UniProtKB/TrEMBL annotation:
It holds the Pfam family AA_kinase. Keywords: Amino-acid biosynthesis, ATP-binding, Kinase, Lysine biosynthesis, Nucleotide-binding, Repeat, Transferase. This is Aspartokinase. GO terms for molecular function: aspartate kinase activity; ATP binding. NCBIfam families: asp_kin_monofn, asp_kinases, PRK06635.1-2, PRK06635.1-4. It comes from Geodia barretti.
């Protein structure tokens, strides 16, 4: 019997009618002969409402209590969905994250999964039940409830799929897959039929629909991930190890219209440039445009340049579980250096407090910060080994009057930090300039 893990986002279970519709979809999968584990997010805007409520009570809510509060949202949706399944005649049981065996570290608000003990889930599956797991949550060795951070239900689903060695993990949301750009910004954005783990990780980390930690887990454990809409049967996007073809069990379980043919997986779709006679290596390698408006920058000014400077500056941020993205260091002739780096806008106040304390110890001239920034990126495999992509990106932005504040690159990504007010225009400029609206 194939085993399928499905995840439904908050918009998919936002009210009673949608919960019943999701229950019907799940029941149809079980009737087709598959065992099913379902992971759910909190209903609609429940998490935001709980956060707002907490801040009306406390200016700075205690992290442990906040996690316990926020975990209740997923418990509500998982139990209601289980009730709906039972009303439809299906044997089903809801489990909290701890009951499902999800063990985490102690980083409240952004905990990481240390291991999964799936014995309870397996027992319920063996009894013929649909198992509905509350996403986004786990438990520490000290029996404290933790949450995995925003988008953590994606991570829950892929982690459970990996632990159970499921045939596939299906992520259902309010969009029909992964697009070449945010369709709310670019009207001509095109849905991507398939994408590799590495490219998707870059897209996800820069604001695409999937949570990056879930893509990391999928890549490590080779869990095929299928992203589609819960509101239609339109084929979605397959995330997998491109070049190896999808797992047979995965392809066999997709709706007929969504089954990727092996030759489609391994072949390169000819671009307009290739059709006009250019070499295969000259094809357009940009898969999509990623956009993230949750960006802030901190600059430590005129720090004496000496060994250990970067370690002293960034270690306190790491200990506070604050992630740093783009880093730029400039050393002047006077042997002093400016260090600029980006963090998420939500982490800015805490990051500035830590950096200001360390900057004084390091003898820096000062610390300045700004919050109104965004990151816009082109993502695609092989760009680093093909000249011209960076210059083309910069020219497109320059022609559109978009000023670049910082630049960072990887094997499959080129990112520019820009003013947030120009972010949406930049996405449209790049999407059109790299002709991503063409099949």
């Amino acid at each position: 019997m194939p085993l399928i893990v499905q995840k439904y986002g908050g918009s998919s279970v936002a009210d009673a009618e949608r919960i019943i519709n999701v229950a019907k979809r799940i029941g149809a999968v079980q009737k087709s002969g598959a065992a099913v584990v379902v992971v759910v997010s909190a209903m609609g805007d429940t998490t935001d409402e709980l956060i707002e409520l907490a801040h009306t009570i406390s200016h700075e809510p205690h992290a442990r209590e906040m996690d316990l509060l926020l975990s209740t949202g997923e418990l509500v949706s998982s139990t209601l969905l289980t009730m709906a399944l039972r009303e439809l005649g299906h044997e089903a049981i809801s489990l909290s994250g701890p009951q499902a065996g999800i063990r985490t570290d102690t980083s409240f608000g952004r905990a990481r999964i240390s291991r999964i003990e799936p014995a309870r889930v397996r027992r319920e599956l063996d009894a013929g039940r649909i198992v509905v797991v509350a996403g986004f949550q786990g438990i520490t060795a000290e029996d404290d409830i933790t949450t995995l951070g925003r988008g953590g239900s994606d991570t829950t689903a892929v982690a459970i799929a990996a632990a159970l060695q499921a045939d596939r993990c299906e992520i259902y949301t309010d969009v029909e897959g992964i697009y070449t750009a945010d369709p709310r910004i670019v009207s001509g954005a095109r849905k991507i039929d398939e994408v590799g783990y590495e490219e998707m990780l870059e897209l996800a980390s820069l604001g695409a629909k999937m949570h990056p930690r879930s893509i990391e887990l999928g890549g490590v454990y080779r869990v095929p991930i299928y992203v589609a809409s819960s509101f239609s049967d339109t084929p979605g996007t397959l995330i997998h190890a491109v070049g190896n073809g999808p797992a047979d069990a995965f392809a066999a379980g997709l709706p007929t219209a969504a089954k990727p043919e092996p030759e489609h997986i391994t072949a390169i779709s000819p671009s307009a440039e290739f059709q006009t006679g250019n070499q295969m290596e000259d094809r357009i390698k940009v898969t999509g445009i990623a956009y993230n408006a949750n960006v802030a920058k901190i600059t430590v000014q005129s720090v004496p340049d000496r060994p250990g400077l970067a370690a002293a500056l960034f270690e306190p941020l790491a200990e506070a579980s604050i992630s740093v993205d783009t880093i730029v260091q400039n050393t002047g002739g006077d042997k002093s250096t400016d260090i600029s780096f980006t963090v998420s806008r939500t982490d800015l106040p805490a990051a500035v407090r830590l950096v200001e304390g360390m900057a004084q110890q390091l003898g820096a001239a000062g610390v300045v910060s700004s919050a109104g920034l965004a990151a816009v990126s082109i993502v695609g495999s092989g760009m680093q080994n093909t000249p011209g992509y960076a210059s083309r990106m910069f020219r497109l932005l320059a022609n559109g009057g978009v000023n670049i504040d910082m630049i960072t690159t990887s094997e499959i990504r080129i990112s520019c930090i820009i003013d947030e007010s120009q972010g949406r225009d930049a996405v449209r400029l790049l999407h059109e300039g790299f002709q991503l609206d063409r099949s």
